Amino acid sequence: MIRALIARYPDLEPCAEDLARAHDLLHATFAGSGKLLVCGNGGSAADAEHVVGELMKGFHSRRPLPAEARAALAAAAPQEADYLAEHLQGALPAISLVGHPSLATAIANDVAPDMVFAQQVYGLGRPGDALLCISTSGDSRNVLRAAQVARAGGLRVVGLTGSGGGRLAPWCDVCVRVPFVEVSQVQERHLPVYHTLCRMLESAFFADSRGPA
């Protein structure tokens, strides 16, 4: 899938190795029963929500439930088990940190604006989880604070930035730096990068899924 990405977007060739490393890190996170936290600002906040949407339900496949999940539903709700089993899809656990306005505004007002994601990482993150930080510049202070708290808490950190990586890069276990500086160009390349990453993870964990989502 990385080769296919590079064929469509040749300018992303420098990202291939780091994208593969990001996949391996996130694969290990999910395989170890960890979860993914995702954060970003502005357009990158929308990207954070987008990533979670692709991981928490079928993206390119429907991800039918395994037999043990179907059996648990049958035991708990025998009258509705078939409906539930047919309408639930396999999920890779992921949480967007940008989607909690009451909490976010309370942190920004009562504590400090740059702690809005860090506080959530502290509250939700556990060793073995991972944090995906999306920042076109790599210098967003609230994203940087989240990465710092994540590293202190035993989470692995993946960055998705522009060419420089900014102050975020040294705090990342892996930083995928698309080779652009201008904000819109960086964001235009972030989309195919994280789509590819989500497809790779889906393929790894739901290889026998049925048909398109």
Report on the structure:
- The chain is α/β, with parallel strands linked by helices.
- The protein has two domains: 2-56 and 91-205, Rossmann fold, CATH 3.40.50.10490; 64-89.
- It is 50% helix and 11% strand.
- The chain contains nine helices and five strands; from the N terminus they run ααβαααβααβαββα.
- The protein has a five-stranded parallel beta sheet with strand order 2-1-3-4-5, with helices on both faces.
- α8 (141-152) links the parallel β3 and β4.
- α4 packs antiparallel against α5 (81-87) and α7 (116-124) runs parallel beside α8.
- The radius of gyration is 18 Å and the shape is globular.
- The two termini are 18 Å apart.
Radius of gyration: 18 Å
Fraction of helical residues: 40-55%
What name does the CATH topology of the largest domain carry? Rossmann fold
Oligomer: single chain
Structural class: alpha/beta
Mean pLDDT equals 95
- Per CATH, the superfamily of the largest domain is Glucose-6-phosphate isomerase like protein, domain 1
Distance between the termini: 18 Å
Per CATH, which architecture of the largest domain?
3-Layer(aba) Sandwich
| Count of discrete alpha- or pi-helical segments spanning 4 or more residues | 9
Total individual domains: 2
Number of strands: 5
- Major sheet, described briefly? 5 strands, parallel
Which residues form runs of ≥5 with pLDDT under 50? 209-213
Helix/strand order, N-terminal first: HHEHHHEHHEHEEH
The CATH class of the largest domain? Alpha Beta
Strand proportion, as a percent range, falls in 5-15%
Main sheet strand line-up: 2-1-3-4-5
Shape: globular
